[in-house]
Write a structure and sequence with these properties.
Chain B: Pfam families: ATP-grasp_2, Ligase_CoA. Chain B: Its EC number is 6.2.1.5. Chain B: Keywords: ATP-binding, Ligase, Magnesium, Metal-binding, Nucleotide-binding, Tricarboxylic acid cycle. Chain B: It is an enzyme of class 6 (ligase). Chain B: GO terms for molecular function: ATP binding; magnesium ion binding; succinate-CoA ligase (ADP-forming) activity; succinate-CoA ligase (GDP-forming) activity. The complex is a heterodimer of chains A (290) and B (396). Chain A has 290 residues and is of the alpha/beta class. Chain A has 2 domains: 110 residues, Rossmann fold; 152 residues, Rossmann fold, CATH 3.40.50.261. Chain A has 9 helices and 14 strands. In chain A, the strands form 2 sheets. Chain A has a 7-stranded mixed beta sheet with strand order 3-4-2-1-5-6-7, sandwiched between helices. In chain A, a hairpin with a 3-residue loop joins strand 8 and strand 9. Chain A is globular, with a radius of gyration of 18 Å. Chain B is 37% helix and 24% strand. In chain B, the strands form 5 sheets. In chain B, strands 7, 8, 9, 10, 11 and 12 form a 6-stranded antiparallel beta sheet that branches. In chain B, a hairpin with a 4-residue loop joins strand 7 and strand 8. Classes of the chains: A alpha/beta (290), B alpha+beta (396). The interface between A and B is large, with 59 and 54 residues.
């Protein structure tokens, strides 16, 4: 088992023929991901990377049965792409685009609220189920198959964590990059819940950063769930000054409860194995898995 | 992107929000002319001279003063312009004041008492919706209000599809204890304020205080406005309001090169790909006994040109005693990054501080060989902890 994406996912790429879309779609196909086509308005009917191009997402759903999308559309049009996918009945919408205006995401997240879909991102590296599907921009070779789930707000820090886990002789069920924007679809709590409920996942790595309440919400859910599956946690940004945005638009300390220290305290109180050093994630996973 | 008070007020006024009026002045003479103009337009007798810098708590630092005649306008404006204003929100050196806002006096006596409120518009990250936060306790530090009397802070969340509804504006005016003319004025104020927030693509409005005057007008006496950086492409008129003098010079230069850089007070510079890994690297520097001198995300393309630009930016800070480069090569191959580092180092020729390079991911071992065989004073590491140990060794 795995979560969100697997070998049977029928994946389309929105922004398929652009430079980002082309490069990463190529990498995904090389990995063995089941890419069934792509969408670029105005280029419908063409073929790109050996796959059909459609004008609309709805057409892709009707003609090739697409159920999952990955969005590389530029920031000004990305929220619209999310809403189009939700409207067309896509179930998993993974949005890589960085720099979407907040007002657009307020609108999009409200629009998709009652639709039967799950948004991952935006501003995220995507989702990978090793050996089955890479729906993102991560380097596939880092993620070996195994029993550890990863949830993270960051791209390269996810690769770092996966690499450390693999070096311990372990592997990954699914790694979910939830994104670093102020408004994102799937929250830390929802991603953790998916992995805790996944029969193959034996341990979850939860990587957060300063800003917002997502990690605290996830920690409290975990405690209330009574789950015995261990979670190893890390929060980046202990040394970040208050009030400054650290790269990710959402990574900003607003008060006393969204600092790295406060988040780590809550996570520890909820039974999460928190490491202070980002170099100890893999070792800790090995230790708690016995 | 943060704006000055006078710029924020300009935006508010353009959406019909009533503001305390004022004119910007860059020297004492301009301040006197501004005061005369304002008296002619508004009938105000006294004037408030307000330093225009990007920092809160200006009054506490002596940056906001009342002038009762033109001589005082000249004197006060002369003193404030050019001063280094130190407030609880600035560094110890303070911020240089380049301009003042000469504003009308709105606390004039009249039929009723004046009262001050607090109001902000911001995103509730938990729900993904905008909200209006407001309080009867205006003119004070809102963090203190939240600490001592949290029941006096109210919030009103706005449905993105419906927008701010009239009943919500009424609720706010009722909760602020208003009636009669002031009540109606407040509902209008709230409605136009929210319209301004949405249509300017702002990420933060803080109006403290919102004033009820003695003749029952409601107005913004101060305005802290931030525009969403990601929306500036479609708000060019606001993008032009950016005042680079208010920002850290090295950060401005880095930004122009497309590098995401934040200047910090420490002694170990760092260069990392990815924001999360960059923060984690800063944390690791601290655990190794150093203090991070910066946050720097070089992004996905760490080629020689980019690495060289990043080196130059980091080395502008004289406090930097060592540099840790931490790149996780995924799509970007480590051996190419390593070659970029060697080339940049050689091109610059005068790097005096020790450099520790940690490259992990695609072709990491090959990258280590390139660094180790370069003959340069650069130490290499593959594991994260190894890099931390080397930083520790260099610092001790």
């Amino acid at each position: 088992m795995s979560v969100l994406v697997n070998k049977d996912s029928k994946i389309i790429v929105q922004g398929f023929t652009g430079s980002e879309g082309t490069f990463h779609a190529g990498q995904m196909i090389d990995y063995g991901t089941n890419v069934v086509g792509g969408v670029t308005p105005g280029k419908g009917g063409q073929e790109h990377l050996g796959k059909p191009v459609f004008n609309t997402v709805l057409e892709a759903v009707e003609k090739v049965g697409a159920d999952t999308t990955i969005i590389f559309v530029p920031p000004a049009f990305a929220a619209d792409a999310i809403m189009e996918a939700a409207n067309a009945g896509i179930k998993v919408i993974i949005t890589i685009t960085e720099g979407i205006p907040v007002a657009d995401m307020v609108k999009a997240s409200n629009y998709i609220k009652d639709k039967d879909c799950r948004l991952v991102g935006p501003n995220c590296p995507g989702v990978i189920t090793p050996g089955e599907a890479k729906v993102g921009i991560m380097p596939g070779f880092v993620f070996k198959e195994g029993n550890v789930g990863i949830v993270s707000k960051s791209g390269t820090l996810t690769y770092e964590a996966a690499d450390q886990v693999v070096r311990q002789g372990l592997g990954i069920t699914t790694a979910i990059g939830i994104g670093g924007d102020p408004i994102i679809g799937t929250t830390t709590k929802e991603a953790v819940e998916l992995l805790i409920n996944d029969s193959e996942t034996e341990c979850v790595v939860m990587i957060g950063e300063i800003g917002g309440q997502l990690e605290a919400d996830a920690a409290e859910w975990y405690k209330a769930s009574g789950s015995k599956k261990p979670i190893v946690g890390f929060i980046a940004g202990e040394t970040a000054p208050a009030g400054r945005t650290m790269g990710h638009a959402g990574a900003i300390v607003g008060g006393s409860d969204d600092t790295a220290q406060a988040k780590k305290r809550i996570m520890r109180e909820c039974g999460i194995h928190v490491v202070d050093s980002p170099a100890e994630i893999g070792v800790k996973v090995k230790e708690v898995m016995g | 992107m943060n704006l000055h008070e006078y710029q924020g007020k300009e935006i508010l006024a353009s959406f019909g929000v009533r503001i305390q009026r004022g004119v910007v002045a860059h020297n004492a003479k301009e301040a006197v002319d501004a005061a005369k103009q304002l008296t002619a337009e508004t009938g105000t007798g006294w004037h408030v001279i307000k330093a225009q810098v990007h920092a809160g708590g200006r009054g506490k630092g002596g940056g906001v003063k009342l002038a009762k005649n033109l001589k005082e306008v000249e004197e006060i404006a002369g003193n404030i312009i050019g001063m280094n204003l130190i407030t609880p929100q600035t560094s110890a050196e303070g911020k240089k004041v380049h301009q003042v806002l000469v504003a009308e006096d709105v606390y004039y006596p009249g039929d009723s008492e004046t009262s001050e409120f607090y109001m902000s518009v911001l995103l509730n990250r938990g729900t993904g919706r905008n909200m209006i936060m407001y309080s009867t306790e205006g003119g004070m530090d809102i963090e203190e209000v939240a600490e001592s009397t949290p029941h006096l802070i109210f919030t009103e969340e706005i449905d993105p599809a419906a927008g701010l509804l009239p009943f919500q504006a009424r609720k706010i005016a009722f909760n602020l204890g208003l009636s009669g003319t002031a009540f109606k004025e407040m509902t209008k104020f709230v409605a136009s304020l929210y319209k301004a927030y949405v249509e300017s693509d702002s990420s933060m409005f803080e109006i403290n205080p919102v004033l009820k005057t003695s003749d029952d007008k409601i107005m913004a006496v101060d305005a802290k406005v931030s525009i969403d950086d990601n929306a500036l492409y479609r708000r060019k008129q606001y993008a032009e309001m950016r005042d680079l003098r208010e920002e850290n010079a090295i950060e401005v230069e880095a930004g122009a090169l497309g590098l995401n850089y934040v200047d910090l007070d420490g002694n170990v510079g760092c260069m990392v790909n990815g924001a999360g890994l960059a923060m984690a690297t800063m944390d690791l520097i601290k655990m190794a006994g150093g203090e991070p001198a910066n946050f720097l995300d070089v992004g996905g393309t760490a080629d020689a040109k980019r690495v060289e630009e990043a080196f130059r930016i980091i080395l502008k800070d004289p406090e930097v005693k060592a540099i840790l480069i931490n790149i996780f090569g995924g799509i970007v191959r480590c051996d190419r990054v390593a070659q970029g580092i060697v080339d940049a180092y050689t091109n610059m020729g005068n790097i005096k501080v020790p450099i520790i390079v940690r490259l992990q991911g695609t072709n990491a071992e090959l990258a280590k060989e390139i660094i180790d065989n370069s003959g340069l004073d650069v130490q290499s590491a593959v594991q994260f902890q190894e890099a931390a140990d080397k930083v520790k060794a260099v610092l001790s």
